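Handover notes (outgoing to incoming on-call)

Open items:
1. Nitric oxide reductase subunit B: sequence verified, structure written out, both below. Nothing else pending on this one.
2. Nothing else urgent.
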Amino acid sequence: MQITRQTIAKALITVFVFNLIVMGGGAIYSAQEVPPIPQEVVGPDGETVATQSQVQAGKIAFQKNSLMNHGSILGNGAYYGVDYTADTLDLKVEYMRDYYAQDRYDTAYSGLESAEQGSVDRLVQDDLDEQFTEGAETIEYSEAEMYAHEQVRDEYVQRYHEGALDRGVAADFIGSEEEASQFADFALWTAWISHTDRPGGDTSFTNEWPYNPAAGNTPTGATMIWSVISMVLLVGAVGLGVFLYKSVELPEPKIKGIEIPPPDEINLTPSQRAATRFIPLAGLLFTLQVFLGGLLAHYYIERHAFFGIEEVFGIHIVEVFPFALAKTFHLDLGILWIAALWLGAGLFLPPLLTNHEPKRQRTFIHVLLGALIVVAVGGLAGVWLGSHGYIDGELWWIIGNEGLEYLEVGRLWQVGLLVGFVLWTALVYRGFKPMLERESRFGLAHMIIYAGGSIGLLFSAGMFYTPETNIVMTEFWRWWVVHMWVEGAFEFFIVAVIGLTLVSMGLLRKRSAEKAVAFQALFVMGSGVIGASHHYWWIGQPDMWLPLGTIFSTLELIPLILILFEAMGQYRALATSNESFPYTLPFMFIIASGFWNFVGAGVLGFFINLPIVNYYEHGTYLTVGHAHAAMFGAFGLLALGMATYMLRISTIPSQWTERRLRWSFWLWNVGLAVMVFVSVLPVGFLQLETAFTQTYGAARSLAFYNSEIIQLLFWARLPGDTLIIIGTLVFAYDMVKKRFTLRDVSDPAESLEEGTIPNRVMAEDDD
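Nitric oxide reductase subunit B structure tokens:
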């Protein structure tokens, strides 16, 4: 089946506009349907239990103290601590049972006969099974609910202010008793929306999540129906993906019969040499990140210690470097080192393809590199200072720690990153200008510009909320940034960069690569943007997102199938190459990235996004396995492959050696496989079983994590983590060595010599 590039480009534009309409309309509707925060919560006698201002202050305390990177809210956040929504709901049920048992039978609930317990259970469910009245400004508690609220509040003050080392919580984790009490009010409000039905509906604001039969929370009929539909769509999506790959004439890379310029015959321009400076910076950030990853993994085994050092030095590591701070740094460093390599690659490729060196490009690249360092150091310093209480007033979320997972750094530093994306896009535009002038609007250079622009555009969604914004809408916009980056803009960027790289390697003609990239981008953008709505199922968003999230999350499998086929084609090309092919190692990284993308985002991603599975799994170690395989396995390995490619061209040929980089490659891949399949996923499946047979809160409880089998599985992660750390250290050492063996730079020649990369790229007609 012949499909022109123009046809694919028109379809891509249509899909992009459709996405904007759906998600824009959804944003307006979601804002109108946001769960209310009542002006006041009162007891049976009119006594005030909590107020709207207390709940809102509790959300601020939640963010300010980085509680989202210790535990989670509405299933989103870290998995080390409890999920505060599920935990407060469990505690609320427990204390209400105790109240009614004492009130009716003058004994503890555990001492009642089964019939008496059944009677108490019915009273608790009747209290919790309420429907919110549209426009109501006051919530009236029963005596049991009021008692439970006060008890939960006391427990949270004791746990998060006074400290609980068995939970990895140091004293004064939340600085004051008042703030800890307000945080409890906020968490209890999320529990309230989880068991209270929407006006005119028969399901709660969170679609009856989290699972807690004692509170009346069980999966809805829609959750099961759309799970069945998802399975049907899965079969169709797989079939469609295979059909499209076999039917549409897309090129595969070929090595035999193609003239590939040796790396030492390629001009190394001043801007390219400047772009390689992003590599050692990434190596440093990567090294720090993996060491913190090892610390985080060990925290699940010793929550207040680290291999006994507290006995030697008399200090608890949880007090010096708590889990929440370590996880914040771990996430942000991961984003920064991957971004640094992608930024460097995007600036390295233009001269390679165009033989064009814009004036002062090298200087501007150094400015961007310096800005990245300032933002990285400033953002992480702000997080540390904010978490230790050194930033007061409104500045805590502006220059300190905004406290939302993946968007932890203060708003000022986020604006700095946004400006950096804009500057990077402008520099890439300058570098690709000769190609942009010759090719059509759907050419490869244009696609890189579009991808870079969309990354910045989606990041701007993180500016649409403040600490005072309702947590439901805060999460709505946060997932616009996090998920649409990963499943939309970044995937688009990946296929465009791979296409450009294959062209620069001489493995694909530019016109052929443009068709392949546009075709894959069509399905990436067509499924990934609206597919972000699977994050809206249980966080208080309208239930319209359940069918949308189900359909488009399933369709996300299509581009991943295409990417897998592409990786297989690349593997075949690599297998038929000979020893003279100079880019074998970068090629291996690209293939590994495609494999892990399919496993992490495709196989594991589809499984945990099945609605009925996600209902029980949401916020468990199955998500950890999915995230590590997709983020590091796909995006990380691709970034490392691009770094290897840049160094292969930049290094003096006589000084080039692949031995250490090959060791790193296999250490990373084997270590990731051990971590994911031997430790992380087994823990996740046991959590899923616990959530299904008991409650979701039980699956996230300290008792679950401290069980013998789970502790054994946590220890089983050590070999995989160790391999990844060693691989990273070898990589960082090799980066430093190679930085001192770079070739001399030269200005591009005015004429394009026959057989060179720019000659092949720039000479093609735009038909």
